[in-house]
Amino acid sequence: MAVNWATAWWIACGALVAVELATGTFYLLMLALGCAAGALAAHLGWSGSAQMISAAALGGTAVMLWHLKRSRDPSPPPINANPDAHLDIGQAVDVASWNAQGQAQVRYRGAEWQARFSGKGEPLPGRHTIRAIEGSCLLLDR
């Protein structure tokens, strides 16, 4: 019985997609693209070597391009300082006074919050910007 290589490529493609869904490793989707290219080459009647080369070329190129894109993107800020996760990041608060440890009580969104100075220099009273949130403590900067 002859092996239907197109079916084998599609099964490999499906298996890679399933493993990617279970693990969240986006690189596996790029390899699945390579398997799809191998399946299409098999449907076109190309030889086994040509199928392998097309799968390796597309899958390998996709992985390389994705890796280059990811390495050039700046890493996101930590979750407690990410304005996409906390809408309070970047908002302004007024500080009446700081204690000797660089901490204060501030009124923000109708409630009293603990605040800690996380900027450079001495904490001075006045308007500050929320840079991060640790629990119920606002980390402030000028």
Question: Can you tell me about this structure?
Answer:
The chain has 2 domains: 5-72, no CATH class; 80-141, OB fold (Dihydrolipoamide Acetyltransferase, E2P), CATH 2.40.50.140. 43% of the residues lie in helices and 22% in strands. It has 3 helices and 5 strands. Strand 4 and strand 5 form a beta hairpin. The chain is rod-shaped and about 80 Å long. The termini are far apart.
List keywords for this structure.
rod-shaped, 142 residues, 5-stranded mixed sheet, OB fold (Dihydrolipoamide Acetyltransferase, E2P), alpha+beta, membrane, single chain, transmembrane helix, 3 helices, transmembrane
Q: Figure out the total of helices.
A: 3
Structural class: alpha+beta
Low-confidence stretches: none
Write down the overall mean pLDDT. Answer: 88
Query: Domains counted in the coordinates: how many?
Result: 2
Largest sheet: 5 strands, mixed
DSSP strand (E) fraction? 15-25%
Q: Kindly state the percentage of residues in helix.
A: 40-55%
Kindly provide the radius of gyration, computed on alpha-carbon positions and rounded to a whole number of angstroms. Answer: 27 Å
How many beta-strand runs?
Answer: 5
Instruction: Give the SSE string.
Output: HHHEEEEE
* N→C terminal distance: 75 Å
Shape: rod-shaped
Spatial strand sequence of the major β-sheet: 1-4-5-3-2
Keywords: Membrane, Transmembrane, Transmembrane helix
